[in-house]
Amino acid sequence: MNKNTFAPTPPMGWSSYDYYDTTVNEVQVKANADYMKKHLKEYGWEYVVVDIQWYAYGAGTMRDRYQYIPFSKLEMDEYSRLLPCRERFPSSAGGRGFKPLADYIHGLGLKFGIHIMRGIPRIASHNHGKIPGTFVTADRIANPFSICGWNSDMYGVDAKAEGAQEYYDSLFLLYAEWGVDYVKCDDICNTNLYVNNRYSGEKEIEMLYKAIQKCGRPIVLSLSPGPALIDKAWHYEKYANMWRITDDFWDSWSLLLNMFERCELWQKHVLPGCYPDCDMLPPGWIGKGFGQERMTGFTREEQITMMTLWCIFRSPLMLGAELTKLDEWTLSLLTNKRVFALMGSSHQAVQIARDEKHAVWFSKDSESGNCYVALFNFQEAEAEVNTVFEELDLNTRMEKKNMPEKIRHGIIKNEVHLEELWTGEGAVSKERKITADIDAHGAKLYHITIK
Amino acid sequence: MNKNTFAPTPPMGWSSYDYYDTTVNEVQVKANADYMKKHLKEYGWEYVVVDIQWYAYGAGTMRDRYQYIPFSKLEMDEYSRLLPCRERFPSSAGGRGFKPLADYIHGLGLKFGIHIMRGIPRIASHNHGKIPGTFVTADRIANPFSICGWNSDMYGVDAKAEGAQEYYDSLFLLYAEWGVDYVKCDDICNTNLYVNNRYSGEKEIEMLYKAIQKCGRPIVLSLSPGPALIDKAWHYEKYANMWRITDDFWDSWSLLLNMFERCELWQKHVLPGCYPDCDMLPPGWIGKGFGQERMTGFTREEQITMMTLWCIFRSPLMLGAELTKLDEWTLSLLTNKRVFALMGSSHQAVQIARDEKHAVWFSKDSESGNCYVALFNFQEAEAEVNTVFEELDLNTRMEKKNMPEKIRHGIIKNEVHLEELWTGEGAVSKERKITADIDAHGAKLYHITIK
Amino acid sequence: MNKNTFAPTPPMGWSSYDYYDTTVNEVQVKANADYMKKHLKEYGWEYVVVDIQWYAYGAGTMRDRYQYIPFSKLEMDEYSRLLPCRERFPSSAGGRGFKPLADYIHGLGLKFGIHIMRGIPRIASHNHGKIPGTFVTADRIANPFSICGWNSDMYGVDAKAEGAQEYYDSLFLLYAEWGVDYVKCDDICNTNLYVNNRYSGEKEIEMLYKAIQKCGRPIVLSLSPGPALIDKAWHYEKYANMWRITDDFWDSWSLLLNMFERCELWQKHVLPGCYPDCDMLPPGWIGKGFGQERMTGFTREEQITMMTLWCIFRSPLMLGAELTKLDEWTLSLLTNKRVFALMGSSHQAVQIARDEKHAVWFSKDSESGNCYVALFNFQEAEAEVNTVFEELDLNTRMEKKNMPEKIRHGIIKNEVHLEELWTGEGAVSKERKITADIDAHGAKLYHITIK
Amino acid sequence: MNKNTFAPTPPMGWSSYDYYDTTVNEVQVKANADYMKKHLKEYGWEYVVVDIQWYAYGAGTMRDRYQYIPFSKLEMDEYSRLLPCRERFPSSAGGRGFKPLADYIHGLGLKFGIHIMRGIPRIASHNHGKIPGTFVTADRIANPFSICGWNSDMYGVDAKAEGAQEYYDSLFLLYAEWGVDYVKCDDICNTNLYVNNRYSGEKEIEMLYKAIQKCGRPIVLSLSPGPALIDKAWHYEKYANMWRITDDFWDSWSLLLNMFERCELWQKHVLPGCYPDCDMLPPGWIGKGFGQERMTGFTREEQITMMTLWCIFRSPLMLGAELTKLDEWTLSLLTNKRVFALMGSSHQAVQIARDEKHAVWFSKDSESGNCYVALFNFQEAEAEVNTVFEELDLNTRMEKKNMPEKIRHGIIKNEVHLEELWTGEGAVSKERKITADIDAHGAKLYHITIK
User: Fold this and answer.
1) How many structural domains does chain D have?
2) Are strands A433-438 and B47-50 parallel, antiparallel or unpaired?
């Protein structure tokens, strides 16, 4: 299987983390899936992902002291594999795992995803749990020095140990049986986080890849947490489908502003089946599982900036909001087909300019020849943002393969026609320049054509 | 001007550094150019580059204490621009600079290049020298804290200072007048080297780019020294044609072995007009200017490994050897058209495997569909090196666009035909595997076809 | 000469930097010296120091762009040695240098100090200036890669070069002729600042030491800037009298709070003739030369905290304020003999406790047996600060050598008598605890006795 | 209790690590103790220390794969406290722990020590083991993110958790009951090793200190592993008796040479009850438990260098050799009373010089006025090593308090008398210089007197 065919365009969906943290249950997942089918599916949204610690009991009960309770009870089978917590996912009883929930979601025409932590449960290692299809036990493949820095459920698996690949294989066979379409593996992407074990982290990515190849199901592989390492770009591209280029993204302007720096860094690495990931989108209602339920802290302008950047950059789009509470304006932001067209597989984008006041991006669809320009205003007040034709190199960028030679050189004389995709407003450039007055922290996204 | 058109394939040529260090003179440059025209030009070699400190007097005279003599006399015009040392380049007298030498080289059908250090001469700054076309003096654009770590000729230029861009413009106007086709700018690529001034280094790259655009001559821009910063790949790609991915490369196996790591890192960044640069090639006679003239320390096998890696990776090829002393075997290494075909603009290569014992690379010409595999043996003795079809993913990689569907999937049953490009020997793969016995530190480069 | 005898107690004086920056002149220095003689001398203040760039012309004239003007004119003798700027120090005319000014200050019964930058002037190096008593020129001892990160006047001197020690010797012979008692050498203490030249910085400290030994005058050697490196404590202690343990200290609470961390770090390193230096004191009027003349930003409570810490820690005390403008309250702070007693050579202090809310220090005079406790309140409001006898280990610490055995163990039953040294108020401890209500950011300094 | 009184001079003894690694048993410990009593005790040797993993089963059985077997069985009481492995320490049966062995050693007039790892057993944490005298369980005080980098037995204890101090208190109450005189706590000294938990490591040192104070027994506290952090010198000095200034020291010249650098760094920090620790001494037979039993790799000259440095620097002396196998020459090295006199509490040493060829140290007994000079030859062949009176500053250093003034200044005219303490040979200095021909890697240690 060529893993790049698993996700020919950036995955779009919903994940339970931003709203539910570690507490989500079956009823809530279904409610969000139902909503997605009804309101979002036609626009490309399709993944429903159960995020972190679905195997843990007591999740969320000691919120004042811990996000993840150390040494708490985990649901696990006799083969050292984690299973859904039966209190929160009753349909998993009787060893059915996530199959019933996956079936439900597939029944809606959607896809089902889960979050996992890299490695093997610590408790299985200390208890010398079995590894399917091998004669070794968990303590022989667990690396007691390879731990996650913020969640104490697992030990890393030592790729050199006999039985290591078999353990990962057994996990993905189980996930394939359940019908999982997407796995978000955590504690594995930014391998700088575990100082002395960078190598081991990379090997675990390769074990994940091989386990997916062997399980026979085209499971999209998403790696967290960020920031991913730019010097390992080639490795992520070889073995995974998406990788987080930031630490957790939330509804704060400083994080959004910072994302421009990260997109600058990763702009050349957006390829079919390979997506640098700007992390989940936090519009609408979020934060309940963290004990701080709130409407997003972003202004509308900032949300437009966020959506424009994620789409022109072609990041995966994973909603963090509780879908059943979406208001009309937010929904409109998530259902703009003209904007989502930029996410198409033949689009390629490039940053034209970035400084402390503004940024400019350009995108072209190599098949249709459609061109787009996004202007961003980073300032605290409305400001004019502009970009000149020379900077955009429009002559080179807008030319088409079969254009007559004399037109190819010098086509763009003085103006192009502009259509803003969030508002639908049209305009014409002047003096070889694209100019817009943009609200504080806002953006404009133009489709540009030569008339 | 689109700078990527200045070098549609990786530049190939000769540079004076490895043999002459700081001491090269006009007669020697011409002798190497003559040789190139006669023996190498038809194979693609075309650049003749005068390397470091052509403006310095006494170069090489205190070799026991210094490579570059601090505070020595530099030839300079009244506008703070360095000129060729008249003792070594007599034709430059009368303010003609490098024009006569460039004319000579152009007359041979070759191209002319020079090396420069980033910045403005320190002595000009201390003497408040003029800047052409401005009312400011050198002290106003020089940054006294931005120095090179190993050569004391220059201060960096402060991009924010009035007159800064004008100074670089004036340099490239002069170089354009001379007829320079290629500029290797030093102390600018690995901006980590000047700890507190990374930003300023990047801005000087941008000033170079703009100065070239303004001068109207398509001068290829090469950046040194390495290692270039992978997180600035997008920046090099936007503003330059080639950038050094290593510190100076010499004839030592450890450096050659290390290059595989660097090529792994940069493999996705070889694009038209954008070349990660493995540095000069040291076969033949080198080291005279350093007081240690010697035949290359590489074995023949190592030289084949080097040429194979540089070519399949598509690094620029710059010879460091004294050309007039090339022996027959070395010359044969530099005149293999079948191998140089891999450097074509439609080729793209990928590393298939690398560990402490071996490496495998694959390259495909997207236009002709030609496929190549290189096998490298890192061990200290002859060893069998092999790669299996699955690892190569031959089914995916060798398919052609217009191939019938039933053939596209599963074309590669059990064997491919192989032709080794250095020896011309043919072979057939067995058991879905390409296998070769390779000498210590050696390589095999195969053209592979389906029969 | 044993350099530790040059300063048996921490030096106290005034330096021109905080008020005048680079602009101070002779009249101003004399005015401050006159004031010191009249109002401060009897309390131990004795050094008058001309701070940075007394040799530069145009100092302060381009304040909007530079603190130190790069490439500006410097007054220099034919031997590459800097001399006072004649415009600002007219008495230096005729080659008399600072001798007339030093004579004046000595006439007041005070001591005279100057600031220097490590190294040799860049301009002397580029012009191949002479070195006294040698046949080499400045370019042969200057290290063109050893520069200061914030002032461009000098190059470091290469300790291995012939003539290097001779240059430093010639400087201190000149300073000894002038009558200099104190040299504050800059760009030399925190040798981490010049990344690749740490070794060279250490060697320059040793050259300074040797030059002082040779010049025959007991010149106190003060090293800047900080933070000094704790792993080089033994080296500073061997070769210098004081070394800055912070970057520049100014009138901000965050810097003052941070000083507690630094004093914690260096507490064991205060020894006779060896003083970790908390930097200049900024009470009163400061900042004029920086274009921002102002009354200190510290509250009175913060100033008491500062003076208490500096004195109990036994930092050198160098006033930065314009003395002629001192108000009565500030003067009272600088003339408290009971407090300055803590600076005596037989005192040794130790930090008892420090957290985000408070700190406690203890000091004992090993000769008189006098004990002191300082309590500091770091909070933003008045708060009770206390320390218990056990924490202070009073039994051990207050015991005297000739005390009868039965008293030595268990002397401190329930209470000690306290006298606060800033207010003169008395008190008695209760329940084996010393307690005080202290204003926000304030301190109490107690003399404690057993009655 | 004043912890500095627990060890008024640097502890001297034997520890099982260098010979037995993790495998030592009761019979072996007793045999070494017997030998110490008979041959070494009168020279000051007194501690007998059972080193790492005395609580582990199977220690040493999988030597080819592990030094410490992850997830192996540990002997533990119901209160989460480790006990001696009953297989190796049969006298510990019936809950008697190390008491019988300690009694035996005390019966020889010697002192008993044990090694512990910082923290609480991981297995106790996962099983929610009890903590004595509290209502909390092990999982509530264990920090699942605070692990040792090379031994997987323990989790760090979170100082802020309720029950944390109580756990350490319970450990030391047990050790006090057993009769432990010395605890070598591991994974706690070089707190840089656990990148994100430096603070927590420091807090555990403080908990150890408090637990010792509470247990009422003067247990010497030794901290490992090194290198200790020089910026935490004050903290070690406040809470512990000795701390390792290197990583493990073994019988290699490069490690011995490196120790001079470390002693230079820590020279000012040797104080009563506070000892920077150069680690165990590996003369004689070592390495059996590591599967590589061998006679020390040091030459005799190197052993003299080692002993001279450890003694003049006043490091603790802990023998690693199997005592029962000591040969006569080695024994003579360990029983030189004149040399051990340098370890006395009134001695203070200082490094006079160090470069790549040699080092010189000076030591003075402030009570007797005795002075010593050690000369070290770092070269690969015999060489003359010397030091001049000026460098030694003999005039200052050898003066005595009650010496007549005229003698104090200038006592040392031209010569001092020398007695070499390893050979007993006498000599006289010449030309104000102490000179010796020293074998490769060897040393001379002189007692110097004025006649």
Assistant:
1) 2
2) unpaired
| Shared domain check, A429 and A292 | no
Q: Where are the beta strands (DSSP E) in A158-226?
A: 182-186, 220-223
Take residue A374 and report the two structure tokens written for it: 């996004």
Q: What is the pTM of this model?
A: 0.90
Boundary (domain end) residue, out of B302, B327, B344:
B344
CATH number at residue A440: 2.60.40.1180
Contact between C323 and C36 (Cβ < 8 Å): yes
The helix/strand/coil state of B115 is strand
How is B327-380 classified by DSSP, letter by letter? -HHHHHHT--HHHHGGGSTTEEEEEEEE-SSEEEEEEEETTT--EEEEEEE-SS
Cβ burial A191-216 (10 Å sphere, 16+ → b, else e): bebbeebeebbbbbbbbbbebbbebe
Tell me which chain B residue has its CA closest to the CA of residue C137: B71
For residue B333, which amino acid is it?
L
Q: Up-side HSE of residue C278: CA atoms within 13 Å toward CB?
A: 33
- Residue D254 has phi, psi (to 5 degrees) of -65, -35
**Cβ contacts of C196 on chain B, cutoff 8 Å:** 149
B140 & B259 share domain: yes
What CATH number corresponds to the domain at position B93?
A: 3.20.20.70
Would you call A443 helix, strand, or coil by DSSP?
strand
**Both structure tokens of B52:** 């470091």
Whether C contacts A, i.e. 3 or more CB pairs less than 8 A apart, is no
Q: Give the Cα-Cα-Cα angle B400, B405, B407 (nearest 5 degrees).
A: 70
Q: Are B147 and C145 within 8 A, CB to CB?
A: yes
Pairs of CB atoms within 8 A across A/B: 29
* Residue A296 one-letter amino acid: T
Residue A132: cis peptide before it, omega within 30 degrees of 0: no
Interface test with B, best of C67, C68, C152 (most B CBs within 10 A): C152
Which structural domain, as residue segments, surrounds residue C103?
Answer: 3-345
Comparing CA positions, the residue from A181, A193, A180, A183 lying closest to residue A151 is A193
Those residues whose C-beta lies under 8 Å from the C-beta of residue C27, and which sit 6 or more positions away, are: none
Name the residue among B71, B59, B122 with its Cα closest to residue C138: B71
Query: If interface means Cβ-Cβ distance under 8 Å, which residues of chain A face chain D?
Result: 70-71, 122-123, 125-126, 128, 139, 142, 144-145, 147, 149-150, 152, 195-196
Alpha-carbon distance of B355 to D428, in angstroms, equals 63
Regarding chains A and B, contact by 3 or more CB pairs under 8 A is answered as yes
Q: C32 near C48, Cβ under 8 Å?
A: yes
How many Å apart are CA B129 and CA B145, to the nearest integer? 18
Residue B273 and residue B228 share a domain: yes
Last residue of a domain, one of A344, A365, A398: A344
ipTM of this predicted structure: 0.91
Q: Which residue is associated with the tokens 């030591």?
A: D363
pLDDT (tens digit, 0 to 9) for every residue of chain A, 451 residues total? 899 999 999 999 999 999 999 999 999 999 999 999 999 999 999 999 999 999 999 877 877 788 899 999 999 999 999 999 999 999 999 999 999 999 999 999 999 999 999 999 999 999 999 999 899 999 999 999 999 988 999 999 999 999 999 999 999 999 999 999 999 999 999 877 665 555 567 899 999 999 999 999 999 999 999 999 999 999 999 999 999 999 999 999 999 999 999 999 999 999 999 999 999 999 999 999 999 999 999 999 999 999 999 999 999 999 999 999 999 999 999 999 999 999 999 999 999 999 999 999 999 999 988 999 999 999 999 999 999 998 898 877 877 666 555 555 555 666 889 999 999 999 999 888 999 999 999 999 999 998 6
Contact yes or no for C159/C206 (Cβ under 8 A): yes
What's the sign of the alpha-carbon dihedral C412, C417, C423, C425?
positive
